[in-house]
Amino acid sequence: MGIYLNPKNVLFKRDVASEIYVDKTMLLSKLNKLVGTNENYICVSRPRRFGKTMAASMIAAYYSKGCDSRELFSTLKIAKDASFETNLNAFNVIQLDINAFYTNLKNEERNSLFDKLSRAVNAEIVAGFPDVGVDVNDSLGNAMLKVWAATGETFILLIDEYDVLVREKD
After folding, report:
1. Measured between alpha carbons, how far is 137 from 115 in angstroms, rounded to an integer?
2. Is the pLDDT of residue 170 over 60?
3. SS3 at position 92
4. Nearest to 56 by CA among 19, 119, 99
5. What is the Cα–Cα distance from 45 to 55, expressed in whole angstroms?
6. Across all residues in the chain, what is the average pLDDT?
7. Best exposed site among 41, 81, 128, 142 by fewest CB in 10 Å?
8. Nearest Cα residue to 23 out of 60, 63, 58
9. How far apart are alpha carbons 158 and 107 in whole angstroms?
10. What is the rounded distance in angstroms from the CA atom of residue 86 to the CA atom of residue 28?
11. Can you say whether the dihedral through the CA atoms of 30, 148, 67, 99 is positive or negative?
12. 47-102 residue pLDDT tens
């Protein structure tokens, strides 16, 4: 669908095709057990260069309604797990790469990073849910709440490279 809302599985497809890919899809089995519970807020914290971005791409490809990932995952470990079909491409996913967004802003725009990011994501939410009444100037949280209130649909929110704000502090 979009860049942020319900991304396709292109990034993970590229990861799997890489010669150095290591199958970590059983993480999805663990996550599937947490969906719909009070334990569904998860932080994957690893050192730099330890595969967090690849994990985010895998999670997005698996859960996103924006694509059909059955074939992509069919040869991976998760395909043999009892929970494989349960949540495959069943959720609205918002995937944010804070570093990519941050580096595309001019220095004077970086103080309004969250406003600009919210507007960019909300533009896709407006396009995906035109009858809900989301405004691009809503906070991202309010936009997701409006969708949930109108449709009952929930979101999986993936935030990658959130530490750019500390790393790049002037």
Report:
1. 8
2. no
3. strand
4. 99
5. 11
6. 90
7. 41
8. 58
9. 25
10. 11
11. negative
12. 777 788 899 999 999 999 999 999 999 999 999 999 999 999 999 999 998 888 77
Question: Whole-model pTM?
Answer: 0.88
**Residues with Cβ within 8 Å of residue 87, at least 6 apart in sequence:** 32, 35, 62, 63
Q: Is 145 helix (H, G, I), strand (E, B) or coil?
A: helix
Return the closest-CA partner of residue 93 out of 28, 47, 24. 28
Whether pLDDT at 36 is above 70: yes
- Using a pLDDT cut of 70, give the percent of the chain over it: 95
Residues 6+ apart with CB under 8 A from 160: 52, 53, 56, 95, 96, 97, 98, 99
Structure tokens at 105: 């802003």
Sign, CA dihedral 73-75-76-78, equals positive
Question: pLDDT per residue over 90-122, tens digit each?
Answer: 999 999 988 887 787 787 777 778 888 899 999
C-alpha distances (whole Å) from 59 to each of 35, 54, 93, 114 are: 12, 9, 9, 23
Q: Sign (positive/negative) of CA torsion 79, 85, 87, 90?
A: positive
